[in-house]
Amino acid sequence: MNTTICNESGDQATPKIASTSDGGCYIMWFDNRVPNYKVYVNQDGIIDGADLSIADSDAFNFVSGYVASDVNGDNIVDGSDLTIINNNAYNFVTVAKP
Fold first, then answer.
1. CA–CA dist 1, 71 (Å, integer)
2. What is the DSSP letter of 58?
3. Is 45:73 a contact under the CB 8 Å cutoff?
């Protein structure tokens, strides 16, 4: 069974998935539906403090590898990932659906 995660226009790239302690998961990807790639982490359509909190916790715990909160793809969650998410949250990046 295939489940559509994103069917917006524009390119979507670098999907990552990370499990949560309650059996769920976070899915992250870069998305070019509006000019310049944006990062979407938790599928709620808004880049905000919730996304930042996920990455902040992972950075604090020195999480590395292929994880959703490593938004720049360097295999470690750190301040550079937090900066990207924070900048997108500051600019009120959201999903725009017709």
1. 27
2. H
3. no
The residue to which tokens 């360097």 are assigned:
74
SS3 32: coil
Higher pLDDT, 34 or 22: 22
CA-CA-CA-CA torsion sign (66, 34, 36, 32): positive
> Structure tokens of 49?
């403090």
CA-based torsion, 28, 30, 34, 35: positive or negative: positive
CA distance 53 to 20: 13
Does residue 47 register a pLDDT over 50?
A: yes
The amino acid occupying position 15 is P
Does residue 47 come out as left (phi exceeding 0), alpha (psi in the -120 to 50 range) or beta? beta
Residue 12 corresponds to which tokens in the numbers above?
A: 């979507």
